[in-house]
Amino acid sequence: MLVATDDNGQHMTDLEIADKILGLLIGGHDTASAAITVIVKYLSELPHIYSLVLKEQMEIANSKKPGELLNWDDIQKMKYSWNVACESMRLAPPAQGAFREAIKDFVFSGFSVPKGWKLYWSTHSTHRNPECFPEPEKFDPTRFEGTGPVPYTFVPFGGGPRMCPGKEYARLEILVFMHNVIRRFNWEKLLADEKIIVDPMPIPAKGLPVRLIPHKA
Ligand code: HEM
User: Where, by residue number, does heme bind (predicted)?
Assistant: First the structure.
């Protein structure tokens, strides 16, 4: 960023560099941490889903030599776990939406949107639209099996040319976390009705305290 220039050879100002660094820290850290937190929450509330994730992850763990690290092929095998992560991000998307500018006049749902207008697309309302996701309140990872949701309906990472460039890294972070926690522990929430607050990401109001229960050897 210190050496990058625009088309006119101008460097970024200190303020612009600080803005980019903060954007990357928040965009790269808080999003994945919010996703992991809601996955932990749903897995404690849905024991049948927990069991299926555990089964998948133990098959991978048991195929490794002692101390052998996860590799790319192992990540590709975590299909059910990723479906669970996706369903968690559908119901509690870390990013609530993003802005766009209309590049031409168009009509949407009876509203005329002129070229140049700024728009905000909402992850939350898209993910809860029953036309895109039947029974939208139901936690159902099978929605992501086969070809999965139609394009631009499941948008936790946005869509199009400005889609999140950290998506694959986030997938890796989330799956490696799920693997390492679930193969060691079950867990139970300590607060039954903990509220989720969105500020700006969905986070349990009291930090989701859980009791970890190690698996028997
Ligand atoms: C679960 C984790 C994450 C979620 C849910 C998420 C979500 C999003 C969303 C919704 C956007 C806007 C996309 C659009 O406008 O179409 C975005 C943009 C962005 N994300 Fe992520 N993100 C995650 C992780 C990360 C990570 C790990 C990084 C970097 C290490 C990252 C870096 C960025 C950057 C730089 C942009 C701006 C892209 C642009 O404007 O061209 N994100 N992200």
Answer: 164
Alpha-helical segments (H) within 65-193: 72-77, 79-91, 123-127, 167-182
Element (H, E) at 45: helix 31-45
On whether residue 3 sits in a domain, the answer given is: no
pLDDT at 45: 97
Please tell me if the CB atom of residue 86 comes closer than 6 angstroms to any atom of ligand 1: no
Q: Is residue 41 part of a domain?
A: yes
Ligand 1 atom nearest residue 174's Cα: 1
CATH value at residue 110: 1.10.630.10
φ and ψ of 119, to 5 deg: -125, 150
Distance 216 CA to ligand 1 centre (A): 39
**pLDDT surpasses 80 at 217:** no
Distance of CA 58 to the CA centre of its chain: 23
The answer to whether 187 touches 179, Cβ cutoff 8 Å, is: no
Taking the C-alpha atoms of residue 199 and residue 217, their distance in angstroms, rounded to an integer, is: 40
Residue 9 included in any domain: no
Please work out whether the CB of residue 34 comes within 6 Å of at least one atom of ligand 1. no
Residue at 174 is within a domain: yes
Number of domains forming the structure of the chain = 1
H helix runs in 63-166, sequence order: 72-77, 79-91, 123-127
Collect all residues with Cβ–Cβ distance below 8 Å to 19 and sequence separation of at least 6.
Answer: none
* For range 10-17, the mean pLDDT: 94
Is 196's pLDDT higher than 80?
yes
Domain that holds residue 96: 14-214
